[in-house]
Amino acid sequence: MKIRDITTVIETFAPLRWQESYDNAGLIVGRGEDEAHAALLAVDVTEEVLDEAERLGCDLVVTHHPIVFHALKRFNSADTVQRCVERAIRRGIALYACHTNLDSAPGGMSWHLAGMLGVGNLRVLQPAAEEGVGFGVVGELAEAVDTVEFMRFIQRRLGASVVRYSDIASSAVRRVAVCTGAGASLIGDARRAGADFYLTADMKYNDFMMPDKALTVADIGHFESEYCAIQLLFDILSKNLRTFAVRKSECSRNPVNYLV
Q1: For residues 40 and 74, is the Cβ–Cβ distance under 8 A?
Q2: At which positions is a divalent metal cation 1 bound (predicted)?
Q3: Does the annotation list 64 as a binding residue?
Q4: In this structure, are residues 176 and 195 in contact, taking their beta carbons and an 8 Å threshold?
Q5: Interatomic CA distance for residues 156 and 150, integer angstroms
Q6: What are phi and psi for residue 5, nearest 5 degrees?
Q7: Structure pTM?
Q8: List of domains in the chain
Q9: Nearest to 159, CA basis, from 224, 84, 248, 68
Q10: What is the rounded CA–CA span in Å between residue 16 and residue 19?
């Protein structure tokens, strides 16, 4: 199957025009007219993921994060980005990323994560100009639950080693806002939406003060919040390309380690 036929399926769900200006989503290594026989889905392109792709015979790697964000001026294996790009070119492995366009797509990353946590009646938290497009979601749990128990549930459901959180604003949670990845900039949106609880990642020290006890904000970690990209991409591809082999990486891992 031609690579363009595969990427067209992804881009029908999450068009490249929905990516942020700083992003580099799309086909990074390879040509649309080239043939691909199997795809491996991962969060990041790493040397371990490329090992896995070669072992499984996958000549297309689809990730959430683009391996190349900034222009590369040389290829001399000086860092992991250069080594991975060089290796992909040498071994004929195409690299494709679906990043902030997948974040902002209706039914995209935050929608998927919220669904995993039992949050329903979802609507966009920070809408974009196009109808239904935007970052984050807000919705309700079926019934109010204890705030600390909800965080413990999130930790178990997502396999998070640590949950960092602000002062607890209320003992119970019903309305929940979710934004995968770095979402501190949406704390105000979550507050205006009347959320009791906001789940995101990559919060800095002062970000934990911003809620001012109007809502509880929790940080589960960037990788932990975005690991669901693998299943989301699998669903998109497998439902539309029933005769094309799509595999979920077992070597996609968090680069952040915790001592707890």
Answers
A1: no
A2: 65, 103, 222, 226
A3: yes
A4: yes
A5: 10
A6: -70, -30
A7: 0.97
A8: 3-101+227-248 (3.40.1390.30), 106-219 (3.40.1390.30)
A9: 224
A10: 6
155 close to 163: Cβ distance less than 8 angstroms: yes
DSSP H helices, 161-228, are: 187-192, 222-226
Note the pLDDT tens digit of each residue in 216-259. Answer: 999 999 999 999 999 999 999 999 999 999 999 999 999 999 99
Using alpha carbons, list the distances in angstroms from residue 99 to 23, 117, 151, 191, 233.
8, 22, 26, 26, 11
The response to whether 103 counts as a known ligand-binding position is yes
Quick: pLDDT tens for 109-132: 999 999 999 999 999 999 999 999
CA distance 55 to 249: 11
Task: Give the neighbor-by-neighbor strand order of the sheet with 216-219.
Answer: 120-127, 134-146, 172-182, 197-201, 216-219, 164-165
Among positive and negative, which fits the CA dihedral 64, 65, 71, 74?
negative
